[in-house]
TrEMBL record:
The keyword Oxidoreductase applies. This is Putative cytochrome P450 hydroxylase. The keyword Nucleotide-binding does not apply. InterPro entries: Cyt_P450 (IPR001128), Cyt_P450_B (IPR002397), Cyt_P450_CS (IPR017972), Cyt_P450_sf (IPR036396). GO terms for molecular function: cholest-4-en-3-one 26-monooxygenase activity; heme binding; iron ion binding; steroid hydroxylase activity. GO terms for biological process: cholesterol catabolic process. PANTHER family: BIOTIN BIOSYNTHESIS CYTOCHROME P450 (PTHR46696:SF4), P450, PUTATIVE (EUROFUNG)-RELATED (PTHR46696). Keywords: Heme, Iron, Metal-binding, Monooxygenase, Oxidoreductase. Its cofactor is heme. Belongs to the cytochrome P450 family.
């Protein structure tokens, strides 16, 4: 068993993990001492792993990713469950993601894009594409979806960001950990009160749909709905915002692809898929072995933490030739940006809808949008399992 020579908690890894992913794929399994986990990065190995929940369990997902900062540790969790229980809960949660609901949101996304873009370009000055545009639309969207108070935008952004950062807790100081706890408490208190309001007066929102959901006599408890609400907040705000920002950044780094996309709007959906593969907003999944298991001749003991590195799989040249090239005509089928198997991301349709609508608007309204800062100075958020930008200054 090879021990990794890299540390995912180091800034060098977090800023640019791709050279380390190449090292990771040299072996089937690598032991990563700082995280007490086995990392797997080859596409075929991960594809096989995620289809064997009876061996590679999600039961400790929240524990491994958030530790003591799991907002609802006492409730059945969509992330930390396996079939058949997961299948049943997923059916209940899926009632809030009916295609008809997503279709109704398309016009709202277009309005949001137009409104925020108007504000960004009103004075003709450079603006922060990430902070002033890409971050804002998903917050409005998730607020509408949850039936939440849109005046709490800054709280929603902070809560999502801080709770996600719990993956870095092993390298954090007391003050940083305290901020995470404040966000956990804030999100939990807010959504507990909001769910109580929805129980007294239903609305046209996903929390109301969760309250009414029933499958084979099973219903969601309020604690389970609370967990789903916070999960949607984190995934709906951070992941989609990073998808939008990462896509714009990739287009600027590969200008010929930018011109191709603008001149061929029909390629926008595939452009989004290539962005998901090329710079996945979520880079890893957290699993636990139920039994001793062999991968590539290496034996992983039972009860071991296993990190499936989606980002490494998405750059495996055995699956995606020339993976370091951003190519919007690429066959991206099978990419792992939303995971694979039973835990394939439930909100993937919403993220795709938002990104597609946003870039249709951008290419139509500001086709000459360009970077207003050197691309080599663009900074990534410090995280080994989330990929996104701190700032992306744009001009037109």
């Amino acid at each position: 068993m090879k021990t990794a020579t890299f540390n995912p908690l180091d800034l060098e890894y977090q800023v640019n993990p791709f050279p380390f992913y190449e090292q990771l794929r040299e072996e089937s399994v690598v032991w990563v001492e700082p995280l007490n986990a086995y990392f797997v990065g080859r596409y075929d190995d991960i594809y096989d792993i995620v289809r064997k929940p009876e061996i590679f369990s999600h039961r400790r997902f929240e524990e491994l990713s958030k530790g003591e900062f799991n907002p609802v540790p006492d409730a059945r969790s969509l992330l930390s469950s396996d079939p058949p229980g997961h299948t049943h809960m997923r059916k209940l949660a899926a009632t809030g993601f009916k295609p008809s609901r997503l279709k109704q949101l398309e016009g709202f996304v277009a309005e949001l894009s137009q409104s925020y873009l108007d504000g960004c370009i009103a004075n003709g000055q450079p603006f922060d594409f990430q902070g002033d545009f890409a971050d804002r639309i998903p917050i409005d969207m998730i607020s509408k979806l949850l039936g939440a108070d849109k005046t709490r935008h800054e709280d929603f952004k902070r809560w999502a960001n801080e709770i996600l950062s719990a993956g870095q807790r092993a390298s954090m100081n007391v003050q940083q950990l305290a901020r995470i706890q404040e966000s956990v408490d804030g999100a939990r208190d807010y959504f507990t009160a909001l769910i109580a309001e929805k129980r007294d007066a239903r609305g046209d929102d996903i929390l109301s749909a969760f309250l009414d959901a029933e499958v084979d006599g099973d219903v969601l408890t309020e604690r389970e709905i609370l967990g789903l609400a916070i999960l949607l907040l984190i995934g709906g705000v951070e992941s989609t915002a990073h998808l939008i920002g990462n896509t714009m950044f990739a287009l600027w780094k590969f200008p010929e692809q930018y011109e191709l996309a603008k001149s061929n709007p029909d390629l926008i959906p595939n452009m989004i898929e290539e962005s998901l593969r090329f710079d996945s907003p979520v880079q890893t999944g957290f699993l636990t072995t139920n039994i001793d298991v062999e991968i590539g001749g290496m034996v992983i003991p039972a009860e071991s933490a296993v990190v499936a590195v989606w980002g490494a799989a998405n750059h495996d040249p055995e699956k995606f030739p020339d993976p370091g090239k951003f190519d919007i005509t690429r066959d991206t089928r099978g990419h792992m940006a939303f995971g694979q198997g039973p835990h394939f991301c439930l909100g993937s349709g919403l993220a795709r809808l938002e990104a597609k609508t946003v870039f249709n608007q951008l290419f139509e309204r500001v086709p000459n949008l360009r970077p207003a800062m050197p691309l080599e100075q663009v900074q990534q958020i410090p995280s080994y399992w989330v990929r996104g930008l701190i700032e992306l200054t744009a001009a037109y």
